[in-house]
Design brief:
The structure is a homodimer.
Chain A (H helix, E strand, L loop, with lengths): L3 H4 L8 H13 L9 E3 L6 E4 L4 E10 L11 H17 L4 E11 L5 H18 L4 E9 L4 E9 L16 E5 L4 H12 L9 H10 L1 H7 L7 H7 L4 E5 L3 H12 L1 E5 L8 H6 L5 E6 L10 E8 L7 E3 L12 H4 L6
Parallel strand pairs in A: 4-5, 9-12
Antiparallel strand pairs in A: 1-2, 3-6, 4-6, 7-10, 7-11, 8-10, 9-11
């Protein structure tokens, strides 16, 4: 009796090196969204994107295998999704509506073309869910020993001033849209349980963990509240940023830029305030609003802006300095031998 | 008697890992040009750039250590210069005036901060020479085992239509601004003479070579004729691109997109027409102009656009198919063990 699973010839996957740059691009490009603001899409020396109010918002971000993600944990689809999500959140944090992305990839030659198709699908679906109408208008494809994804994202301010970090005033309401500490809890779970007996990242363990715990999914493919960025701007937000390095560190940036103290209410930081303060990569939106504002979208109040005295800590919790809570600095935290 | 050269304590250089992300950025950012079109520069979630005609041109490009450059040959200043130059040429090839760059770097933690300062100086000087008023408005800094530079560049079309690849018509003049085959000749010299006895890239040999041969300098830090892009657009260029993969391959792209034959005049291809046809990375501008046009800036005529018959080769030289001349495909050409 034959065993089909062992007698069938398995074709090796077509790799980027085998297909070459042009065929690889021909397979990826049709999967990407054109976008409603795209005057000229991929295929020429450059794309052309409309900027109806005569300005555009731009942010850029690199994701590198090792410090920023591990292929044992993140699928190619996750990587495309997360690369889009983190950049869309930065555009939203200015109060802008995302209009377009460009994506440059550097991948090992042995990468299956199917992986890049999945990555493109992740970019496409993230745009469709978080920023409908946002297109992927251009890119670049290079070979590298280290898988690297560079996304640059654009947005339209619709005639409004950008919401920067320096506009918070004493008396303003401090608010957040999206989770606090969830991505970091997911990452801690992966480091603890998404590994094999030697502590190396393990795909099977991680997949099981992801099915059981939504925080793991938020770490691998977050869905920040992108639409709440323009809503906050329309509602009069005085300062805003996206929470990429943890609430304490990022709130401190607003406090320092604005010359105020951000006082957080411990009762609004969830069951584990320390994790809420220190956990990075949530890409939730942090904003301040004038007193008595009706908070828009998914924003909830978590504190109050206070006047700064000489020597004030930038961030307090219930009026008290919570002490150093650290933050994500890739040069200090990453250890190459962790996988 | 003391020998000062051996008795002085030499401080080890401050590395990116030692300085951390914030201090490294604090040393790089002041060296970058602000730009005349920058509404909001680095320091917030995103930058804001003006786009006076309600559109912007955008192109992105990755440079990766190994396939795209070798640190034994290219200085950090060269890398910054070349990363800017190749992207500025893409913007110019649409007929646009460069307005801004964003630059994302992924570098090994042991990289001296001084190297990133030199890279920033290269970006700054390239903008000053090729695109005055163009600013570096944002960026990102990550750690990676593989030095990677991702530049995204923007331009202003000043109300004109973009000059794409598909507009060439029979009878048009074929013209080029900038050298043909020079960067490839420089690279061939480096592979032949910029190496040690084992064939590994060698900094001392390369530096000597560069002093003797300007083609080596064009390979490591080219100065494409960026200002000639908008000049060509104003003069009525019907199609344009930047020569990154060699004249034969790039002219073939215009021919196919436009449905024509590009017939080149061998007498205008210099002493080595084969090198002119196949050599990549010059970043010269290739354009077609209506018959009897006065060619602007540095453009010189090198051929004529002909009507295509069924089965015509896309590119001919003196009316004859020059055969396959190849082109730059990083997945097919790069071998990791070449240094």
């Amino acid at each position: 009796m034959e065993h089909p699973a062992t007698s069938v010839d398995v074709e090796p996957p077509v790799t980027v090196q085998g297909a070459g740059e042009l065929e690889t691009l021909a397979r990826i490009l049709p999967r990407l969204p054109r976008g409603s603001r795209t005057d000229l899409g991929p295929g020429d020396d450059a794309a052309v994107v409309s900027a109806p109010d005569g300005r555009f918002v731009v942010t850029t971000d690199l994701m590198v295998h090792g410090p920023d993600f591990r292929l044992a944990w993140s699928s190619p689809y996750d990587l495309g999704w997360k690369a889009a999500a983190s950049n869309l959140a930065d555009v939203a944090a200015m109060g802008a509506v995302p209009t377009a992305l460009v994506v440059a990839l550097a991948v090992p030659g042995e990468t299956p073309v199917a992986d890049l198709e999945a990555l493109a699908d992740g970019l496409r679906d993230a745009c469709a869910v978080m920023a409908p109408g946002c297109g992927v208008v251009g890119g670049d494809l290079s070979v590298s020993a280290t898988l690297t994804i560079a996304v640059t994202a654009f947005g339209d301010l619709e005639g409004r001033r950008p919401v920067t970090r320096d506009g918070a005033s004493a008396g303003d309401v401090v608010a957040v849209s999206g989770p606090l500490g969830r991505a970091a809890r997911g990452l801690a779970l992966l480091f603890r349980l998404g590994v094999d007996h030697d502590g190396a990242p393990d795909a099977v363990a991680a997949a099981g963990l992801r099915g059981r715990d939504p925080d793991v999914g938020w770490q691998l493919a977050p869905t920040p509240p992108v639409a709440d960025g323009p809503l906050a701007a329309r509602a009069g937000a005085t300062a805003m940023l996206d929470l990429s390095d943890g609430l304490a560190l990022d709130a401190g940036r607003v406090a320092r830029a604005s010359g105020v103290v951000i006082d957080l209410d411990s009762g609004s930081l969830g069951a584990d305030p320390t994790a809420a303060l220190s956990g990075g990569e949530d890409h939730s939106l942090f904003a301040t609003f004038p007193p008595d504002s009706l908070l828009p979208g998914g924003f909830r109040a978590i504190g109050t802006v206070r006047a700064a005295d000489p020597g004030s800590p930038p961030v307090t919790v219930d009026g008290v300095d919570p002490g150093a809570t650290g933050g994500w600095d890739p040069y200090r935290r990453w250890s190459g031998d962790r996988g």
